[in-house]
Amino acid sequence: MPASVMSTSTSDVPGSPPAVSTTGLRKAYGDKVVLDGIDLRIPTGSVFSLLGPNGAGKTTAVKILSTLISADGGQAQVGGHDLAADPQGVRAAIGVTGQFSAVDGLITGEENMLLMADLHHLPRREGRRVGAELLERFDLTEAAKKPASTYSGGMKRRLDIAMTLVGSPRIIFLDEPTTGLDPRARHNMWQIIRELVADGVTVFLTTQYLEEADELADRIAVLHGGRIVAEGSPAELKRIVPGGHVRLRFSDPAAYESAVLTLGAATRDDEALTLRLPSDGSQRELRAVLDRLDAAGIEADELATHTPDLDDVFFALTGGTDQTKEPVR
């Protein structure tokens, strides 16, 4: 059974259709089952991140939802369009950019934008206007006349996303968009993603960087063995793994000893005058600890909470080992 931690997203207004939803989505290559009946509901205007080991099915899910390949079973709606009945409607609503850039290095950044505008059948003048605005938005105006082959990795990724936005998609699939980027370029890409969401765009993100999912995602699903084994906000997922605690430090030995008696089942460090209590990191548990100390007239000098990070969650749910790589089709 998946460890699903359910909550209502602020973007998921009751009655509003989700940007992406799937029921029982399945895909196999021969006897290799890649997706074994996954259910998703992604609110409009949010960032959803799909995590999983190599070969878990992340890229296959993106390819199915972006109409690049067909599912073997199940149902899916993207942007209000049924994936099987109206793939053209789905394509009109989405943009896709991945770890393998669609940028043509032999032509300039501006020419890449115009080519994309032509593919979207924009009038020439409109295509030039949209292209120039997007190049400016992604800080590529100075490099617009240079061959894309001269761009840095971060610049190529920005150009790739700019090209994706030519058709004004409301849903964007980002398949490992920061793979291979240096930390500065990765943080710049994070800011771009935040700005897209602020404009109401829905982002479906697959990533191998757990910190990236933690920073960006409103909700995360962990895919393992073809199934969703956990889903929730980053904070909710961290609470399903044991190891969280509240750490209290005292400078007054008498206050420390009183806290030992008051709190009971705490791990003590008499030399450092610190106590550690198991905690799920929730506000309710933290308030309970503070209320017990206040009632006894005890004041700690320092209080810190620790919850497991997404690395802990990922390894606990997937066993920490990569699977066989997904078949390439």
What does this structure look like?
- By secondary structure, this protein is α/β, with parallel strands linked by helices.
- The protein has two domains: 3-238, Rossmann fold; 245-309, Alpha-Beta Plaits.
- It is built from eleven helices and 15 strands.
- The chain has helices at 58-65, 87-93, 109-119, 124-137, 153-164, 183-198, 210-216, 234-238, 253-263, 283-295, 310-318, and strands at 3-4, 20-29, 32-42, 47-51, 73-78, 81-82, 94-98, 171-175, 202-206, 219-224, 227-232, 245-249, 267-269, 274-278, 302-306.
- Strands 1-11-10-4-9-8-7 form a seven-stranded mixed beta sheet, with helices on both faces.
- Helix 3 packs parallel to helix 5.
- The radius of gyration is 24 Å and the shape is elongated.
- Mean pLDDT is 87; it is low at 4-13.
